[in-house]
Write a structure and sequence with these properties.
2 copies of one chain form a homodimer.
Chain A lengths: L9 E5 L5 E3 L2 H10 L3 E5 L6 E5 H13 L6 H13 L1 E2 L7 E3 L2 H6 L5 E7 L2 E5 L1 H18 L5 H4 L3
Antiparallel strand pairs in A: 1-7, 2-6, 3-4, 3-5, 4-8, 7-8
Chain A binds a DNA duplex (30 and 30 nucleotides) through loops.
Chain lengths: 156, 156
Amino acid sequence: MRKNFLFMDTITNKVDAKGRVSLPSDYRAIVKESESQIVCYRSLTSPCIEGCLEDMLEKLATEIENSNDFFSQEQDDLTNLIFGDARRFLFDSTGRIVLSEKLLAHAQIKDTAVFVGKGRKFQIWSPENWEKEELKIRQRIMQQRPVLSPAKRSEN
Amino acid sequence: MRKNFLFMDTITNKVDAKGRVSLPSDYRAIVKESESQIVCYRSLTSPCIEGCLEDMLEKLATEIENSNDFFSQEQDDLTNLIFGDARRFLFDSTGRIVLSEKLLAHAQIKDTAVFVGKGRKFQIWSPENWEKEELKIRQRIMQQRPVLSPAKRSEN
DNA sequence: CAAAATACCATGATATACCATAAAGCATAA
DNA sequence: TTATGCTTTATGGTATATCATGGTATTTTG
């Protein structure tokens, strides 16, 4: 790969009874260009699904492999959680992936999924949880920047 | 080789009276692509079976050979244990391997085996032991999280 | 030859790939 | 701007292929 790519935007799609969702078309374009695959796993810290390109995990695996720390407990834990949870998700000719029950349950997703771009990775939220999360994020930002210009504040 | 491959996901399969288990189909695909073989041995630190491609053990052996580390006696011992225990496991035309009594006993596996991907290697657990282990790991990770360096990558 | 290990066959369940229609974006021309 | 046709995308439905697993045949080995 080594191409530039960014997962961006926020897109809401339907999830049917079988767990099928359309991957946003921009994301599909990234997959095609990169010649890699989408990999998803439960976020370690939030009630959402996280996704990235398999290349990213490849990189992680290589780092661990080369760290000469064949028997480290910490690495063992990490690899168990990340690789033990992650799975490839190929999309069919209509652009859909099917999310597993495990992932959907973790993210509390029923019939609607919100894809949120995060650059090198992306997240999938339930509409309710994402709404709350976005609010939290905005509040954190505001606190950290008390001196935002009035113009900026009235934007949006 | 240097092909890309990752053992991922957590998959539960049945073990019959003869010790036969289906190797997850993704794992089989890796074996075919790599033109290497699956090797399994008793984990040195946990009640589980550990597996990887034979290439990996090759690499480990080379590393030991080339590191004239005066203080690596411990690592040397560990690798001796692994090589003394490891064995090739070929799968038949239906995708099954036959786990030995020794391995099954060590992992306390009766009629169900849980395959847990770890990137370049994987583990096989009994459902009960894996459940406990996963919980332990999550607790440890949560505690250490702020100081984990490789984990930066998986941050939000 | 007996016992065990290994390879092959058959089946149902499940996941995957494909088809068809609807909806939405996009460009061009009026 | 507004209307019109075209292309791309989303989504419900269905056919197909794959996989896990119980069973049996065949080979190996002691």
